[in-house]
Each structure stands twice: as structure tokens, then as C-alpha cells.
Specification:
single chain; 64 residues; mainly beta; three-stranded mixed beta sheet; two-stranded antiparallel sheet; 1 helix; globular
Length: 64
């Protein structure tokens, strides 16, 4: 099984959506709110959404 994708978002993001990312084989589009947290996970596919500053602190390679 592949490790879920990590998506780095802007620090000012309040919410994100996830649809599984694989077109018709994905899952229903779901919205997630950060609610003061720096990272959240999709309940369907496990995709990891993390704010840019938290990703930098955690050592993620940030594409510019």
C-alpha cells in the first residue's frame, strides 16, 4: 500500500477539500477545516494537509 500524499498549503488556509485525487476512482469531495491546527488528514484516503510553516519546521522539502 502506498503512503498517502502530503499536500502543503498556504499558512492562511482555513479549509481544504479532498476528492482522493484520482478522478472517478477517488472518493466523495470532502471539506476539512484546520480549526487552529497546522495539519489535518482526510478521513477517506489519509491524504495529509499541512500548512507551509509547519511543513518547513518538520523538514518537508518545499517546492518554490
Amino acid at each position: 500500500m502506498n503512503k498517502p500524499e502530503t499536500v502543503i498549503v498556504d499558512d492562511d488556509a482555513d479549509q481544504v477539500s479532498c476528492d482522493g485525487g484520482i478522478g472517478p476512482l477517488g472518493h466523495p469531495k470532502s471539506w476539512y477545516t484546520f480549526d487552529g491546527k497546522d495539519e489535518i488528514y482526510c478521513y477517506y484516503c489519509g491524504r495529509h494537509f499541512i500548512k507551509r510553516s509547519a511543513a518547513q519546521k518538520a523538514g518537508f522539502a518545499i517546492k518554490t
